User: What shape does this take?
Amino acid sequence: MAERVQEQEMEIEALEAILMDDFKEIHSSESGLNTSKRCFQITLSPQDDDADESTMAPVQLALIFAHTEKYPDEPPLLNLKSLRGIQSGDLKILKEKLEQEASENLGMAMVYTLVTSAKEWLTAKFSQDAGMENNEEEEMAKDDIVIPHGEAVTTDSFLAWRERFEAELALEKAKLMPETALAAPKERKLTGRQWFETGRASARGAGHITKGSDEEEEEDVDFDDDDLEDDDEEDMLEHYLAEKSNSSSISSCRPN
Assistant: This one.
């Protein structure tokens, strides 16, 4: 009997030295145990080597025990309380686990062994729940990703679009210019009479011109204004594209 009491006292001193602030004696009325003997509470949290010491653990457990008269030849009295974030169902599972281990370690001081087992269980349980939360966050992040639609833009397609756009822009600017600025190109075009008098008609096999042709009624070629305007726009657009193509060719031929 005296040997058991001495062994129990030595275990309490060892636990207090190892666990320090996480180990304290409490009144039997606070323990939830049906005993009048000394009761002790050990505070446990999941083990996380990367966590900052100032960071509060998401879950925390209180392991309460008391020695019996025959301890360690019989298991200690055990009780578990959730200090933060642990469900009652999980407490029941852990308590059954610790009671099974206590029955397997009879004859030796076992409280620290039970403390280590409870801490490992908390770490495994906490890591599993954290992993599930991370998976849910990753799935939500995937749902937020916007997949682009439409034809991909390449360098060639962009250059072709820019060249066409600049040509159309130049054409629009030309439309806004005063009519006097656009009159010069039109004046250089020959009327039907001027083309006839220059002798170009004879060069294309129109035949010799007789004297009587001077007395015939001269007719001017009638050009529709809308046709001339459309032709002018097309000519200006083609002329702009040709000049831009020539300037690009000259630039590429220059030595670096």
